[in-house]
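User: If only I could read backbone structure tokens as easily as an amino acid sequence. Underneath my words sits a plain record pairing an amino acid chain with its backbone structure tokens. This is the protein in question:
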Amino acid sequence: MKTVFICSPFRGNEEENAEKAKFYARIAIGTGAVPIVPHLYFPMFLDEKKPAERMQGIEMGLELMDCCDEVWVFGFNITSGMQFELDHARETKVPVRLYDKDMNRINLRTLRIDERATPEYVASIKGLKLLK
């Protein structure tokens, strides 16, 4: 089975974002993939509000990403934690798939005219090994 790292927002509205991450994980399972969702797992025993524990969780998440076949990014809002994960995916050349928050694949051919893709978003994904 293919393993996919789920990269989606968590900080801010943690309860709502956790529900969205669960939804993305269910979709991944439906495709036959094994979802790896560190921001659902680590907050169960690490305190997101304690900077040292948050950094520890992010570092362990990168270790899990290293074991994944792909990274799936959800939404056009890239948080600082997501950006850190994307930087790691870029460095390690892990293939990345882009989705909007409603699970629609982002069309790479039309991305430059997609009104949802802000300049910040485009800069965030630059240099990633993007999958069509």
